[in-house]
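dumping this here before i forget
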Amino acid sequence: MLRTTVRKPGRCILSDPPAWTTLSVIAGRTATIKLGTIHLAHAFRAQGDDCQDGGPLDTLSGGRLILFYDCGWLESEVRAYGLDWPAEDERIARMAAGLDLITALWRTSSPLDFQGQFFCTHGATCRPAPLQKPRPPIWLGEARHSHWLDVIARHADGWNSVPASPARLSEKLHALRAACHRAGRDMAELELSLEVQVLVVPTEADVKSIARRIADLPSSKRGEVRPDILDAVRSDDGRPLHPTIDDWLVGTPEAVTRQLDAYLALGISHFML
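structure:
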């Protein structure tokens, strides 16, 4: 995938090409892989635009779209484009309303008059309509609080967690299960996913030395890493790598296999590596 570098005083921001543009290129060069966004923030575009881009892409790709949606969590990236940044509860409510509109447009074959708290349409259509019926799958991520979890239980076909140890993931799943119960929904209907960093090494003794080599790479090659993690990885005082490492798949092949088994036992069926 192409990547462009935008330089600002004192920092370097890596940005990827827009999701819909990139997925359209990938769709034309592949035949079977699924085409999914990840944390596509509703704040950047009108919901009708996401509907109009996603529906035709699903049809033209043979029914391969996954819409992984989000309300947006990074204020600076939204403010950078002069967009509004309402309180968290309103952002969540707007995203949920946006999903109501997207779902309605994807499911109807007639012009849609939609009246909601935040959005309204008058004779709107989505053509061509998505190939997948009743609509392409919708994914949402994380388990921040009950309001967010209630939106997941109502709308999502799939749920994704950021890196979390089996113990922390179990707590998230417990909260998600409670939200599904409140919504009268069987949690087994949800596909469960974990995004996680991976470092597989020949021996346990190699973990810190290889992690240190990765930490010493230029940021353009290793990506952004929190300063406290870099400090712990680079240290020579015998302390562990960093508590956050417990959330990652790190160790020998045997150790990582045991970690994967623990996640599988919790119901995880997808891994974003």
